[in-house]
Specification:
With about 375 residues, the chain is an alpha/beta fold. It is built from twelve helices and twelve strands. The chain has a single domain, classed as TIM Barrel, CATH 3.20.20.70. The N and C termini lie far apart (about 55 Å). The protein binds flavin mononucleotide. Keywords: Flavoprotein, FMN, Oxidoreductase. This is 4-hydroxymandelate oxidase.
Length: about 375
């Protein structure tokens, strides 16, 4: 995702939507896109194994995250350069999310100043969380400057991306000749993104000591995004380095051949226990996928490309329509599974891709008197 600058730049979208070049950047994945595809198919390999006659009288999609209750268990994932998708870019996306109770994680590489997004989102009464994603480019003092800007503006957490020390444009983006204009708006960068040879990128790579340094100075809760290995999750918790973890492989945009996040999630949930909430992203394409993620132990999810598609094809109204549909579908799915709230979704409701003996699934369902239907 490191921008390259060139005169033959990918311009902001025409009224007909993003160009093929911009779409290649926005929707592409690393390598042969094995991880990108695996992310999508892994959620769908699970099937439900519900009990009947256990329909709850009420169903809510609300969740608790970092000490507050929010209307829905999802946030827009941080995504760079959304001006490529729609003229209203991150601002249009954030407003539509806020109006529908979805959270927003604004990217360091957003094309709108972080303060402008916060001013639009924070007054929305039914909004979800507002977090800022940090790529720690440049000197540590520059990172802190952006973190302080986010805190002053009213952001509620910093999401530190830890899975992309080295980034290249995807093969599709390269083949399409994708490049950003030299004057592309990047109002939230702490410093210019590292570029040049691999050796130059390696010198700038984030390490655990840097996370500890930031943790001590960050005035907001710190969320680590991009953890896949249970040992990393355990270390982050043991060392007190974060307030939440996002299981992510960057939507298959960085290292191809990583496991689907649906497969990584259960091990991380187990290694973290109740210490911090675990979130997940990658390949979630429907509310049914989200229900699987919640049943596997995610407290909430982040969604990327479906929102880009909605924004590019129908603007902020398209994003709002997507969230409304997902909200209805999630509550309907939960009702059919006998779950009154997301926290009631449980692995015992799932049959895993490797077939297990259903008679060994847990049998505990709370006993309840029959509720007459009115
Ligand atoms: C166009 C695009 C730009 C992205 N930019 C960022 C970014 O700036 N920072 C970041 O941490 N992740 C970034 N990501 C990764 C997303 O935050 C998220 O992990 C991923 O998109 C989730 O997978 P999904 O698109 O299948 O939902 C980007 C993803 C896309 C598609």
């Amino acid at each position: 995702m490191t921008p390259t600058t060139a005169p033959h730049a990918a311009a902001a979208p025409a009224p007909s939507g993003p160009s093929a070049t911009a779409r290649a950047y926005l929707l592409g994945g690393a390598g042969e896109q094995r991880t990108l595809q695996a992310n999508v198919t892994a959620w769908r390999a699970f099937t439900w194994w519900p009990r009947v006659l256990a329909t709850p009288p009420h169903v809510t999609a609300t969740v608790e995250l970092l000490g507050r209750r929010w209307p829905a268990p999802w946030l827009a994932a941080p995504m760079a350069h959304l001006l490529l998708a729609h003229p209203q870019a991150e601002l249009g996306l954030a407003l539509a999310c806020a109006a529908q109770g979805a959270g927003v994680v604004l990217s360091t590489q957003a094309t709108v100043p972080l303060e402008r997004v916060a001013r639009a989102v924070l007054p929305e009464p039914a909004r979800g969380p507002l977090w800022f994603q940090l790529y720690p480019y440049g000197e540590p003092t520059a990172w802190l400057h952006v973190v302080d800007r986010a805190a002053q503006a009213g952001y509620e957490a910093i999401v530190l991306t830890v899975d992309a020390p080295v980034q290249w444009a995807s093969p599709q983006a390269r083949a399409a000749g994708f490049a950003l204009p030299a004057d592309w708006p990047q109002p939230n960068l702490p410093a210019s993104a590292p570029h040049g040879t691999l050796d130059a990128l390696l010198r700038c790579a984030l390490r655990w000591d840097d996370v500890a340094w930031l943790r001590q100075r960050c005035p907001l809760p710190l969320v680590l995004k991009g953890i896949l290995h249970p040992a990393d999750a355990r270390h982050a918790c043991d060392a007190g380095l974060c307030d939440a973890i996002i299981v992510s492989n960057h939507g298959g945009r960085v290292l191809d051949g990583l496991p689907a996040t649906a497969l990584a999630l259960p091990g991380i949930v187990q290694s973290v226990g109740e210490r911090v909430p675990v979130l997940v992203d990658g390949g979630l394409r429907s509310a049914a996928d989200v229900a699987v993620a919640l049943a596997l132990g995610a407290r909430a999810v982040l969604v990327g490309r479906p929102l880009i598609e909605a924004l590019a094809s129908a603007g902020p109204a398209g994003v709002a329509a997507l969230w409304r549909q997902w909200h209805d579908e999630l509550r309907g799915t939960m009702a059919l599974l006998g779950c009154a709230e997301p926290a009631a979704l449980h692995p015992n409701l799932l049959r895993s891709p490797a077939p297990t003996d259903p008679s060994k699934a847990a049998t505990s369902q709370p006993e309840r008197s029959p509720t007459p239907c009115t």
